[in-house]
Amino acid sequence: MNHTKGAQSIGFAESPFLVSSGSVVGKKESEGPLGKKFDMISKDDLFGEETWEAAEGVMQKKACGLALNKASMQPEQVRFLFGGDLLRQGIATSMGVEALQIPMFGLFGACSTSGEALALAAMSVAAGYGDYMLAVTSSHFGSAEKEFRFPLGYANQRPLSATWTVTGSGAFLVGKKKSHVRISGVTIGKIVDYGLKDSQNMGACMAPAACDTIVQNLEDFGRQESDYDRIITGDLGYVGQSILFDLIRKKGRDIKDNHMDCGMVIFDQKTQNTNAGGSGCGCAATTLSAYILPKLESGEWKRILFVPTGALMSTVSFNEGESVPGIAHGIVLEHC
């Protein structure tokens, strides 16, 4: 049987496997430190389409295709698809996965959506609701700037605390077919709101949620920080990481020696002018697929805690002066 652990976690008696994955990115991401590790790169960030939103949908379709092809599977073999993006009504996802004709759950967890999708996919497989599930998410610099900040033609100046939305999509096939990576447990995050209202400092908005989920995971599973080779957050960047360290120390924990943030490794801060680092649904998802999973598959890392982080804001809430709550979901990934 599967077991609830502590207040917010689930441990799987028979762990579902992360069978395969696919990563698709744009030009700027290909020029970063991980550039050669992604499965597919487009030098045209419109991906041959006329709008940023349609381009994002194309990324999701291609990422799903890559994950399925690597496992030699067809869409009809997948029971459910869990997908989401940053845009209103999840339009990039609906346009992207329509052609696959897989029964779909549309999700929104902001930049934490890859964690939410993986958690639900793993829970569904472990519960016996299907042998295979797809989890997919994406973000696009152009579509995110247009919806949440300023159209690109405005050429606004970005503060040093701002992160750069990753143009990318990551898709993951979760199922019973054995692989070298299994999902042994999940910790579902709560909404944490410290009252911050600066949408240009999302690292600060998300760090409290990351702290809450990481500490809860350690408590629920009875583990120490050193029981993980890496504790990996999704989108905090340089500003958010510093805040996370301070918050966790106040909880009597210290993750400085084994922490990694996807937003800090996907871009070169010195040469790519991304200020505080990377963010967006595609940041954690593509880094997991291209960089983290190979280290687990090879056995270099035995166990990691993957914690994508999301800032739960909208244009409406921002314009009405509301604060920016955060959420983070923890996925325990192990080499096998």
Structural commentary:
InterPro entries: SpoVAD, SpoVAD_sf, Thiolase-like. It comes from Bariatricus massiliensis. This is Stage V sporulation protein AD. The chain folds into 2 domains: 173 residues, 3-Layer(aba) Sandwich (Peroxisomal Thiolase, Chain A, domain 1); 155 residues, Peroxisomal Thiolase, Chain A, domain 1, CATH 3.40.47.40. 34% of the residues lie in helices and 23% in strands. The protein contains 10 helices and 17 strands. Helix 3 links the parallel strand 5 and strand 6. The longest helix is centred in the middle third of the chain and has 20 residues.
Report the strand count: 17
Q: What value does the Rg take, in angstroms? A: 18 Å
CATH class of the largest domain: Alpha Beta
Average of pLDDT: 91
The biggest beta sheet is recorded as: 7 strands, mixed
Distance between the first and last residues' Cα: 20 Å
CATH architecture of the largest domain: 3-Layer(aba) Sandwich
**β-strand amount:** 15-25%
Can you count the helices? 10
Task: Give the secondary structure arrangement, pairings included.
Elements lengths: L2 E3 L3 E3 L5 E9 L1 H4 L9 E2 L10 H19 L9 E5 L6 H7 L6 E4 L5 H14 L5 E8 L1 H8 L15 E2 L2 E8 L5 E7 L14 H20 L8 E4 L3 H14 L8 E3 H4 L12 E2 L1 H18 L4 E5 L1 E3 L3 H5 L6 E3 L1 E6 L1
